[in-house]
């Protein structure tokens, strides 16, 4: 996309955080639907607590920490670093469902970048050769917005929070007002999650959430479900 017609960095971030981004994020509940089936989540309070915990325990310490390290790596062209981060993401996917999600959303975001001509041929080729995971593809998209790192991570986190809120609305189920209260709570938590992600190094970054992995595995064979597995 030529620089004279490209949207501003802020608009790029809004675009990437939008549920209208055609990458399929809305089709996954990331363990939430299985948690509902097991009785762990059953109303607004428990749904909010579940997603807030997921933001701090898995997103900020895992995928968001990868984004915080991958965005500058894209900007400096550090291919070895990008390969290592992508490998780490793939190794942390503990169920077939989790692996499907990161691969499918990574490919879809790569197609979006290719369609809009927002990445260079070399960047697209690197992603296609990995195969790319969603955090690595998203880090490329966010790096192209050329915004401060904390703002890029806030956009990612809000997009994730909105998808999870929509999943709760459909599957708990909750009403729209409850969903807005849930999203407001998540929005208040995002700053702290971003700061955590930005301060983690390779030794501190982690993906240890055994209950989430168990629920994801159970979801793959759950009899009645509306989200993808």
Q: Find the CATH topology.
A: Urease accessory protein UreF
Q: Which CATH first-tier class would you pick?
A: Mainly Alpha
Q: Using the alpha-carbon principal axes, give the shape.
A: globular
Largest sheet, strands/sense/barrel: none
| Unreliable parts | none
Q: CATH superfamily name?
A: Urease accessory protein UreF
Label the CATH architecture. Answer: Orthogonal Bundle
Give the N-to-C terminal Cα separation: 35 Å
Number of separate helices: 10
Instruction: Briefly note the structural class of the backbone.
Output: mainly alpha
Indicate the proportion of strand residues.
Answer: under 5%
Question: How would you characterize the overall build of this protein?
Answer:
It is a single chain. The chain contains ten helices and no strands. The protein has helices at 9-17, 32-37, 44-76, 79-91, 96-116, 121-128, 134-143, 149-171, 176-198, 210-219. With 229 residues, the protein is mostly helical. Helices cover 68% and strands 0% of the residues.
Describe the protein's topology.
Blueprint lengths: L8 H9 L14 H6 L6 H33 L2 H13 L4 H21 L4 H8 L5 H10 L5 H23 L4 H23 L11 H10 L10
Highlighted features:
229 residues, Urease accessory protein UreF, mainly alpha, 10 helices, single chain
Concise overview:
This protein is mainly α and 229 residues long. It has helices spanning 9-17, 32-37, 44-76, 79-91, 96-116, 121-128, 134-143, 149-171, 176-198, 210-219.
